[in-house]
Amino acid sequence: MRHLLSTKNLSRDEALQILDVAEDMAAVNEREVRKLPALRGKTIVNLFFEDSTRTRISFEAAAKRLSADVINFSAKGSSVSKGESLKDTAQTLAAMGADGVVIRHHASGAPQVLAESDWIDAPIVNAGDGTHEHPTQALLDAFTIRRRLFGSTSRGRDLAGVSVVIVGDILHSRVARSNLWLLETLGAAVTFVAPATLIPFGAEAANWPAAISYDLDGTLRETRPDVVMMLRIQSERMNAAFFPNAREYAREWGLDDARLAALGPDTMVMHPGPMNRGLEISAAAADSPRSTVLEQVANGVSVRMAVLYLLVSGQAGEGKANA
Amino acid sequence: MARTVLSQADISRALTRISHEILESNRGAAGLVILGVPTRGVFLARRIAEIIQRIEPGAPASLVGALDATMYRDDLARNVTRTPQPTDIPAGGVDGKTVVLVDDVLYSGRTIRAALDALSDIGRPRVVRLAVLVDRGHRELPIRADFVGKNLPTSTDERINVRLGEVDEVEEVSIEGPRVFHDGYDEGSDEPDGGTR
Lengths: 323, 197
Fold this sequence. Notes:
The complex is a heterodimer. Chain A has 2 domains: 12-134 and 297-312, Aspartate/ornithine carbamoyltransferase (Rossmann fold), CATH 3.40.50; 135-293, Rossmann fold (3-Layer(aba) Sandwich), CATH 3.40.50. Chain A contains 11 helices and 9 strands. Chain A has helices spanning 12-29, 54-65, 86-96, 110-116, 135-150, 174-185, 216-223, 246-253, 257-262, 283-287, 293-312; strands spanning 43-48, 69-74, 100-105, 124-129, 163-167, 189-193, 210-213, 227-230, 268-270. In chain A, the strands form 2 sheets. A 5-stranded parallel β-sheet of chain A has the order 7-6-5-8-9, with helices on both faces. A 4-stranded parallel β-sheet of chain A has the order 2-1-3-4, with helices on both faces. In chain A, helix 6 links the parallel strand 5 and strand 6. Chain A is globular and about 55 Å long. Chain B has a single domain (3-75, 85-176), classed as Rossmann fold, CATH 3.40.50. Chain B has 3 helices and 8 strands, in the order βαβαββαββββ. Chain B has helices at residues 8-26, 40-55, 110-122; strands spanning 3-6, 32-36, 64-66, 98-106, 127-135, 147-151, 159-163, 172-176. A 5-stranded parallel β-sheet of chain B has the order 3-2-4-5-6, sandwiched between helices. Classes of the chains: A alpha/beta, B alpha/beta. The interface between A and B is medium-sized, with 28 and 22 residues.
């Protein structure tokens, strides 16, 4: 693994390696001295062409806990807003000696362009690109599910037989796509639930390994899922009339108090944040003990530490699975 | 080429003696924490803890753990990425305790240097001791073992293989003559510094 661009081409062994190393990182995050010297002297660049607070600070905390130096680069107020190309930005970072680049970009595929170019010779981590993928979010979701299900015996286990229902704006969601591929690799069964307007056109024809439903109540009743993952309604990408209004969306596809009460006793409620309380998730659901929202944030740092450690600490080259 | 230097019975006797020496120097098992350095040090630490619990009735129940030093190594950037192993500290922590680090082979001393750094991020023991099954010499750092199963003078182009029943088919310590290089890969062990050094 040289870069982390997507979860689609991540093998089961690679995924489990990241999740298992994240267990070690989580143990570090629970102790008094939350710092490891593994990336001392290395420089990680957070290259954010799109607004993000939580993902950026999560990566920043992860890099700092591994003792790396962190440079934050956001497009606003930088030379990008003066028209600099991705190539020139990348070459500038290479000249500054970046050992790893975390990139978020509004264009799907931008991290891949960077990884395949010869502009910069550093591992690239995709922190969300357009409507394509957000692999570390999927990894932290899988990590959170695994820890809730198996606790201290999580190491080495996949998610075989776990049923996950992902509800909401599938169309614009890179989180949904990354989760789909990763959960499938780990053996979980995925169902997408959304209004037909928010399911990608041709998703069924494209043979996505997910069941697709337009009826939340029916799906929750029939699948009795282990996990219900609510996605944020991305109003900044709502450039058409996907549903009549927010109230109708909340009534049909929101996790309200009645649906929360009808869930099985061990069903967990996930949300990648930031939440629109009262729209896709009710306040009671967000704050209930079933909710993993804050665990997801904490686990995000551990998973990103694992990814940065595995990509940046060693010499470039194919890492042996257990070397 | 490999020549056996410690048989299963020799290993068992050495660990029994080390356990007694640990209890002697600590004057009992009070405040004792035995931490194995992965991979094989962890199994040796468990065996030592079992012996101590058998011969010292007042020994604490949670005595043994594992201390991984991978992220503290000084050669991380020189090798392909190493996967860390779990660290597992007994319930009482290490603050104010007598910590005995256990490893299979003491060679350059760099693993122990890393383990000492890892330990100081976890807490502040009263004293730290080092027990090893084999001391093969060639130290590159000012580190020495307090409890040694066997001193084995070696040359740097020989290899020491420690095989333990928990993970290997046989149980023995063997010494292998000058390395045979082919295809650039080491023979025998798949671990760069677990069982073979």
